[in-house]
Each structure stands twice: as structure tokens, then as C-alpha cells.
Amino acid sequence: MENIEELKQNLVAEIMAAADVKQLEDIRIAVLGKKGRITEMMKNLGSLSVEEKKEMGKGLNILKSEVENALNVQKDRLAEQELNARLSNEKIDVTLPGRPEVQGRIHPVSQIYEEVVAIFGQMGFEVAEGPDIEDQFHNFNALNMPANHPARQMQDTFYIPNPESSDFDDSFVVRTHTSPVQIRTMEKKQPPIRIIAPGRTYRSDYDATHTPMFHQVEGLVIDKTTTMANLKGCLYDFVKAFFELDEIPVRYRPSYFPFTEPSAEMDIGCLKTKTELKIGAGNDWLEILGCGMVHPNVLRAGGIDPDEYQGFAFGVGIDRLAMLKYGIPDLRTFFESDVRWLKHYGFNPLDMASMTGGLSNNGGAAR
After folding, report:
1. 3-state class of 143 per DSSP?
2. What is the DSSP letter of 106?
3. Which of 31, 145, 250, 275 is geometrically suited to a Cys-Cys bond with 140, CB 3.0 to 4.6 A?
4. Which has the closest alpha carbon to 200: 187, 211, 192?
5. Peptide bond into 262 cis (omega under 30)
6. Highest mean pLDDT: which of 150-164, 308-322, 353-367?
7. 266-315, pLDDT tens digit by residue?
């Protein structure tokens, strides 16, 4: 039989000289295949004496192991060379301008977010943020919502068990509105306060106008002289700027919210037909947001003396604003990741919304 050490050196040298994966595979078959050299040598062990068989068998097993190791090392090296060659050949120049046909689009929700921030930013509002996972105090209790309030029921709210307590009242919630940001702002900041709180909110609901996750923006103003007239003027200026109209009919209807008193819902004038909704014209009305004067209990929960300070608050759905302004009929399509939908309703990412440069007149798709 062949000298095992000499055979090992020859086979390893042949393996390391393989120029590609195919050639390496041919070598593997010729050496370790059913009729390979090492396989045939192992088959011939039966013709040797016991001592020779023991010594030769041990040597062949070591040889087979080292050949397999050399094959794996060379395979990895060739794969790395092939990958480097592909990366070199397929490299792109990221400094080249993007092709219009593959340019991404800004989602309508992101566009509305920028528009709202631009409008209220010009009015002197700051943007405030808070956590998506809230405790029940900030999400409900501090907002004057009693334990039996319908909004706290399991069918409307996503609850998260508290690992440190078995008491249901200690459970966390995925916030049902961005109002907890108002409480957290009052806890950290003394009046005057003038903030908006845009962000994601969550409720257990799903149809053409509701989704389990949606977006809201809420506003809060607190000082010593704020009145309902200030609230109405602020919201009127907002809807005019947002819908980009010189004049727009509005009305306020008495309503109820546990965190404001008095409370109201704001309607805007529109024209409704079976095929069209036109904002600012016609004899119809469309409810757009809820608002009111901050309830004294809410001020106390935030650490502010209601005998010295007062303020107003409002809230509106960002997704609903997008549906109204850009004629999007179904809220569920916002979250279906359909590139065709985004191409139609999306906006040019290079044109940001601003009060000086324009809000929606910035490259949005034709509607």
C-alpha cells in the first residue's frame, strides 16, 4: 500500500491548488467518493494481517480526517474569494443621483405629522413625547377616568401584566391616547405650558375607520388667562392652515370628555356626495376633533393648582386628518405595506412640509 504520509502531502497540495469550487468537488469525489483512493484503500484492509490492519486503519482514519479538514478550509477560502469578486463586480456608486422610478415616497402619516408640527410650531407649541407602555395612573386615573369608565374595559384596551404584582390595578397598558404625555409634561414643567403630543396609540378595534394601532396628536395650553375663546381661535387657525383655505365654516357642539370641562366637538363645513367630500364648501358638517378646558382634577393630578391656572386641550387623529385631506377611503390600507398604494398617496421625500415652503404642495402624488 502507498505511504500514508506521502499521500497526505500530495492530496493536501492538490486540494490547496484547486482554483474553484467545482474543481475542489471533483477532488473530493476522487479521494473520498465511493470509488475514491482513500475509500479503496480502506476496502483493502481486509487482506492485511491483524497488526498491519490496526496500524494501517489508524493511519487511514487520520488521513481521511486531515483531507476532510483541508477540503473545508479550501472551500471556505474559495467561497470568500468568490464573494469578494462578486462584491467588486457588483459595487454601486452611492454618490450617483437616484433614479426617479425607484425613489422612495413619504407615507401620508409622516407627511401629516410634519404638517401638524409645522402649523403648531409657528403658533409657539413645542413637541412633547412619552412612552408607549403606560401605567394606569397616567393613562386613566390622572385624566379623571373612574375605574368603571368604558374606555378602561378589556375589550377596548390592551393590558400588560405587571410581573411584580398580581393586582390588576397595577397592570400596564399600551397607551390608548397620547393624553398621558400631558400629565407627564405637567409633572416635569411649571406653567406656562404650550405643547403638542403626537404619537402612536393603541386600541382593540379594526374596521375601515379603526385599526389596533393608529396616530394621534393632542395639544395642551396652561397659563393664568387662557379661555375657551383662545381654544376656538387656535383650532380655527389650525384647520384653515391645514386644509389650506382662506376661510372655513366651523362650529362647536357640547360634548363630554372626562378630562375636560366644558367639553366640545369641533365640526368643519363640507359638501358630501356619494362620490366626493369637499372641505370648506356646502351645507354639511364633518366632526374633526374633540376639545375643551382642562378639568381641575387633571390639573391637580399633574401637580398644578387649578385655583391659579387654567388651560385648554384638544385631540385629533393624524390618520383621520390624512384620510380627509388626501381622499383616502380606508384606514386599513395605511398599514398594508403596498408599494403601489404608497406610490399613489406618498410624497416626495426631498420636499418637507413648512409654513413658508407650503404644506401639501410639495410633490405629493396625483390624487
Report:
1. helix
2. B
3. 145
4. 211
5. yes
6. 308-322
7. 999 988 887 778 888 878 898 999 999 999 999 999 999 999 999 999 99
Give the helix, strand, coil percentages of the chain, each rounded to 5. 45, 20, 35
3-state DSSP call for residue 223? strand
Enumerate residues 6+ apart whose C-beta is below 8 A from 164.
170
pLDDT at 185 over 80: yes
**DSSP output for 242-285:** HHT-S---EEEEEEEETTEEEEEEEEEEEEE-SS-EEET-SSEE
pLDDT over threshold 60, residue 189 = yes
Q: What cell does 124 get?
A: 409657539
Residue given cell 408599494 in the structure block: 339
- Phi first, then psi, for residue 302 (nearest 5°) are -90, 5
Give the whole-angstrom CA distance, residue 139 versus residue 258.
12
- Please list, in sequence order, all residues whose beta carbon lies within 8 angstroms of the beta carbon of residue 185, skipping any fewer than 6 positions away: 128, 193, 195, 197, 220, 302
H or E stretch covering 193: strand 193-202
**pLDDT value at 364 more than 60:** no
C-alpha cell at 128: 412633547
Task: Give the residue from 162, 165, 137, 195 showing the smallest Cα distance to 312.
Answer: 195
Q: At residue 143, what are phi and psi to the nearest 5 degrees?
A: -100, 20
- Joined together, the cell numbers standing for residue 27 give 477532488
Residue 345, φ and ψ in degrees, nearest 5: -100, -10
- pLDDT exceeds 50 at position 67: yes
Q: In what order do the strands lie in the sheet with 172-174?
A: 133-135, 172-174, 159-160
Mutual angle of helices 228-243 and 108-122, in 10-degree steps? 130
Q: Which three cell numbers stand for residue 56?
A: 494501517
Contact 210, 331 (CB under 8 A): yes
What lies within 8 Å, CB to CB, of 324 at 6+ separation is 277, 279, 286, 288
Instruction: Quickly state the pLDDT bin for 154 (edges 50, 70, 90).
Output: low
